[in-house]
Predict the structure.
Amino acid sequence: MSKLKIAVLGCGSIAQNRHLLEYDANENVEITAVCDIVEARVKEVADEYGANAYTSYEDLLAKENIDAVSVCLPNYLHAPVSIAALKAGCHVLCEKPMATSREEAEEMIQTAEKNNKKLMIAHNQRFVPSHVKAKELIASGALGKVYSFRTTFGHGGPEGWSAEGKDSWFFKKDQAFIGAMGDLGVHKADLLRYILGQEFIDVAGFIENNAKENITVDDNAVCILRSEEGVVGTMTASWAYQPGEDNSTVIYGEKGTLRLEEDPVYSLVAQYTNGDIVNYQLGKIQSNDEGGQSNSHVVDHFVESIQNGTEPLITGEEGMKSLDVILGALRSGETRQISSLERVKK
């Protein structure tokens, strides 16, 4: 089987620390072209990976014969660039959040279907071993009826790792559209939907900018979520957790509690009402810290879905359901009322 020709659109931190490294490590692909509006940056990346360099994604799509692209651009460009790539005959792996509105997300999904191409959203938390195991335990009935949860994702903020530091597009509403909730909260919305196997129907959001100055997006947010089966819990996203990252989730059920990524040694601790405690040492969760990144499995899964003609785990529809939670939280924060979420066909 010939290698897939890949282009990476956007050469910032997420591209350099995840997408490019993981494509380079995959023997079934060839990084053919890269694109970034910063000429010096894209030339450096192109030289490192032996790829053609572009400062215009339109030029790249017009001139290169590629099979798939990763869209690693500011949030407001996710939808238009993904749509352009799909129309050009490329499969698309798009960073999260997939779009800035439900309408954009729907257009992405429709364009993928019309052109018979894969659209996958890069929600990497579904591939974390502790999360996969927790989903298995809940589905098996080991926890009994699930009652509640709390989940959080927080760190010091994008200035610590993004390519532009304090001048990052992450802090600008016209480019990011949403702050910590879009950067981190959407990951947890997707994770909870995946682990619980349920959709959320109501969300109350408390969305704030109370930690960083001179930014136009949220840096702290707390949401209360209710699922279709009555599971209620909290979801927190923050760019103000110092000095370390918190990426933990706790699930409370009839027969016990699952603690994910909370213990420094055991990535999953299952505590049961009969007194049993099971510690799972499943490997460290992916992070942007030095040495914290090896393989998120997102790229490998995307490549396999193309080669095998299978649906990726996080389709456009799945991405839109998780985006809906965040959009609902934003509406709630603005109106100070509980948001009812639109239902997406399964």
Observations:
- The longest helix spans residues 316-335.
- The chain has two domains: 4-124+298-314, 125-290+321-340.
- The chain has a mean pLDDT of 95.
